[in-house]
Amino acid sequence: MSDKAMLEVKNLTKHFKAGRGQVVHAVDNVSFTLEKGKTLGLVGESGCGKSSCARTIIRIYDPTDGQILLDGQDITHMKQRELKPYRRKMQMIFQDPYASLNARMTVRDIIAEPLLAHGIVKKKDQANEYVYPMLERVGLTKEHANRYAHEFSGGQRQRVGIARALVLQPELVICDEPISALDVSIQAQVINLLKDFQEEKGLSYLFIAHDLSMVRYVSDDVGVMYLGQLVEVCEADEIYRNPLHPYTRGLLGSIPIANPRLAREKEKSSIEGDIPSPIDPPSGCRFHTRCPYAKPICSEQAPQLKDVGGGHMTACHLY
């Protein structure tokens, strides 16, 4: 593992039992590397496995197979007690800022909880010296500390979630669609806040989102997932300038353009059909049932994610 790597995921697999002997293939053989101080954007349709992948990496879910290396340390099969010191290094910002906050706890107690859990402070009162400055950093005030989650707007609740994740000063933060439930103006504020923390603390982000334009703005590299598998990975600018996988082209073709003239000139590209069930994924390339360029080999043999030049990785029989 490179000294520059904050996170390395090797052939990560997560399956869920669905009853009657069925299995949901949520994540299958996903591999990537996230360097220290960098951001890897993870994109794809709803249900493609982005969140399941993130929750498996942070060990909310136990992996079915594969390997997770955090700053060189294998945490794949660690028990919860063994994981505790590594949980300080990795934190998560959840998609729903309301559901992820305890409605019965004040903001002060929510942010103080990880400090108490990891023994950084012994009493709640001692946590104030950490809680109040963190509230200020995320754009809230000391007066907000005694309020409850339902008293805040969506943007303010997400700031509380960010404060809770960052108060431990982690090295890796997994952002699971942290802006999808927010207004556009609030999205920009939250993204700029995360970028400021990254510049100051050298944080590494795994950033999951639907908004491809926002992913381009925040990410150094981008990975595209389809039905539990990575189909393309490369630098952010490269994947927008030169998308190779037909699925990636379809995703980028769906981005709306405000300028009518540019919208007319834009290459029309869309993805036909519905995403197959992860309980019974197609054989071979999982995208072949919706791909306009599918060949016989696509339904027979699964393509491997390989470098087609300049670090541009794609899993497609066209290359």
UniProtKB/TrEMBL annotation:
PROSITE patterns: ABC_TRANSPORTER_1 (PS00211), ABC_TRANSPORTER_2 (PS50893). Keywords: ATP-binding, Nucleotide-binding, Transport. GO terms for biological process: peptide transport; transmembrane transport. It comes from the Bacteria. The keyword Transport applies. The keyword Nucleotide-binding applies. Residues 7-252 form the ABC transporter domain. Gene3D superfamilies: P-loop containing nucleotide triphosphate hydrolases (3.40.50.300). GO terms for molecular function: ATP binding; ATP hydrolysis activity. Belongs to the ABC transporter superfamily. PANTHER family: D,D-DIPEPTIDE TRANSPORT ATP-BINDING PROTEIN DDPF-RELATED, TRANSPORT ATP-BINDING PROTEIN. This is ATP-binding cassette domain-containing protein. It comes from Candidatus Lachnoclostridium stercorigallinarum.
